[in-house]
Amino acid sequence: MFAVPAYLADPGDVTPDIERLMHRASLLLTVPALTYCGAEFFIGAWRGMVARRWSMDAPIALGLATAFAASAWSTLRGSGPVYFDSVTMFVFLVLGARFLEQEIRHRAGDALERLAAVLPESAERLGADRDAQQTITVPLAEIAAGDCLLVRPGARIPVDGVVVQGNSDADESLVTGESRPVPKAPGERVVAGSVNGAGPLVVRTTQVGAESTVAQIARLVERGLAEKPAIAQLADRAAVWFVGGLFAVALASGLAWAVVDPARVLPVVIALLIVTCPCALSLAAPAALTAGAHNLARRGLLSTRGHAIETLASVTDIVFDKTGTLTHGRPQLVHTRLPGSIDAREALAIAAALESASEHPLAHALRAATGDTRAAANLCHRPGAGIEVDVAATRYRIGSVDFVAGLAGAPPWRDALPANTLVALGRRDEWLALFEFDDTLRDNARAVVAALKTAGIRVHLLSGDAPAMAARIAQHAGIHDCLGGASPEAKLRHVEALQASGAIVAIVGDGVNDAPVLGRAQVSIAMGSGTDVAQAAADFLLLSSDLDAINAALSLARKTRAVMRQNLLWALAYNLLAVPLAALGFVTPLVATIGMSGSSLIVAANALRLAPLSRTREGKGA
Fold it and tell me: Helices 265-275 and 548-583 sit at what angle, rounded to 10 degrees?
């Protein structure tokens, strides 16, 4: 406000006394802008000096201090140029660029913070008899692992747990980004922050506090944000050398102008220090990578290490685990053989009653295949074999073929038994049913594999399951390179062989046996439903079961790399042009301020193309 008249007025229109008054007023307003708003530049420069290394705050602090000191001296003695407008505008624009970069960085954690905020403050805890009619409302902080909670229809699930009673569906979009309701039945996992659907659920708490899914994910995200990728570290090192070179150029320019035109030494040096500040260079990579990480997080794929996005853009081969990755990871009833005198409905009802108290995955699959909730009493469990019970003087068995054959006699099937997992049901001297279970392919697995191939990625399948089962899944998914019956060591050797041939490998897995190979691959993606060991070893965490996020991640990683390169090229080109112009005296301190800040804003704005400024909508993934 005080500087504009000096720029617009004709010579002689502003009298010397009015000019001195405006300079003194500008000095008073500049002091708090410099000492309060600009304090972080001086603190950063001092810390760099103590650490014996140049930081990008050094030229900022030196330029501000030089411009302010020269302007204050001119104001006090009543003559000479003043640059208060440049000082205040410089502080404002640099802080504005940093605020924009900080805003991009905070996006990745926004949804997690919002998720923690929407968790209910209390829960309905059931007594030891699990009577849903008698509950006690207690603060969430008092819930412990093993407590059973009643979650009413439409209520938000307060803890991580397992459904022990009831059938419903859950909206997990806030946690995983999965837009469709996920069916929930006894034995199914539920995640804190998801919303229960139409049916009441009794949930047994498995994880609370720091061990909950939300807390673990938050720690992984914080680790990813704290780590700097190689290209960002390279940019930081380049900025250090650039600052040292800048000071040398400023000194040489000052000495040259002292000979040519001493009156121009100060404005040239100030303009040179300001216009070539390496802010854009230091922001180029982090801004793009952070914006890309936020966009991935909205799709349910969290980057937990700094290098992940940068490396993913260069991947040539993707290796999938089978169970829990390409497949659902839980057995489903695919066929029932009925050699006895009962139909399939009655056979399933009997089987579900015998398995009513079992937590085995096959028991859950049997109960899920029938709506009958009857339970048998006085069950006798035979470890490693099955279950036996007497009903109305008739003995029943369910379990392995050999176990049931000991009661029902030789199996009636003359052909070879299928390779699928089998559960037999029989009673004395009679075979009732043979249930075949298989782990089915995820609905979109084949489309995901096809899209990866179209993008030029070679796809492989490694599995510890029997070679025949792994080959069948690979064929259904459209994968030609398959290795079944692979131990963790065999998986590791296979990945190392790919890398030795020049491949950049990404692996997707979920189990403990995947942890070594997840750590060996250049990029690793762990399923959110996988084990803690696998998640800790991974570079990405896929919160949902939607494999489409992998294709989206690959595409976005390549876009992020392109934006990052654009930013680095812009920052380099800008400085190569600005340095000689400023050294030759063609740039004033005010123009230098606008140019430097403008270059930083261009870099940040270019990165924002990867992560729009609009807040993540409620209901999207973390």
Answer: 170
- The answer to whether 544 and 218 are in contact (CB under 8 A) is no
CA distance 342 to 211: 48
Q: Which residue in 69, 447, 56 sits closest to 270, CA to CA?
A: 69
What CATH number has the domain spanning 120-155+160-207?
2.70.150.10
Angle at 558 between CA 554 and CA 564, to 5 degrees: 140
Q: Which residues pair with 388 in a beta bridge?
A: 380, 397
Residue pLDDT, tens place only, 504-524: 999 887 654 566 677 778 888
- Is 129 annotated in the active site? no
Annotated active-site residue in 171, 321, 514, 539: 321
Q: Could you tell me the pTM of the whole model?
A: 0.59
Q: What number of residues does the chain have?
A: 622
The CATH class that applies to domain 332-438 reads alpha beta
pLDDT digits (tens, 9 = 90+) for 375-422: 677 788 777 678 888 887 888 999 888 899 899 888 887 666 665 678
Fold for domain 299-329+442-558?
A: Rossmann fold (3.40.50)
Mean pLDDT on 591-599:
76
Apex 233 CA angle, 310 and 109, nearest 5: 60
